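ENTRY TYPE: protein
WANTED: fold as tokens:
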Amino acid sequence: MANGCDFLTSPSFDALQSEVFERVAEQAGDEPGSILYIENNDHRTDEVADAWADNHEPLRLRVTDFNTVIGECYERIADPSSLLDALTRRRLIDRALRTVADRGLLDDAHLYRDHFTDLITELEGEGYHSPESVRTLVEDSQLSPGTADLVASVYEEFYELRREGVGDDVYTLSEAYRTVLDSGASLTEIFPHVDVVVISGFYDLSHHEKSFFAPLNATALCGLYR
């Protein structure tokens, strides 16, 4: 990878993107996939790829999202496996809510499915990926004892249902983050064909994203923030 980490901003995104394209085109090799563009907005993936292809060799740049990169890193470090898909995840959370409701801790469980799906995703994104860590967090927070017990109980049920119903060959994003970060492997080691990485569209980084991006300055990447 090229040396140096640039952080670029501009009131005009088109001008910013053009500047980034010009820089990475000079820094990266001509091989397919030599530029890895991590876009935080999934809806812009095709737009970015098309904009690049207007003036450059399309195969040199690959546009993807952060979760895909983490998943690929995980599969290169650990044994190949499958990411827990969103539909299965929602079903497991729904079952966890109904189980907790049967204990009398919650009424109208179906009304809370989206809320707890977002909450569990946020908890895992901040590094809380075990029932023990989640319970400690909520019990030490300003939540009422009843609410803290509810949150911890739902996560415990979700965790156990996933282990029992999905199997060890399926991983969650939080497990992938933890494995990749604990390995200490850099993107240079995992993706030796990549010369330059562009990071685009990140405003509020999660715990795992901060931990993953922090050492990138040492591996010399080009960062695009807007």
In short: The domain at 6-78+181-224 is CATH 3.40.50.300 (Rossmann fold). Residues 34 and 87 are 33 Å apart (CA to CA). The chain has a mean pLDDT of 84.
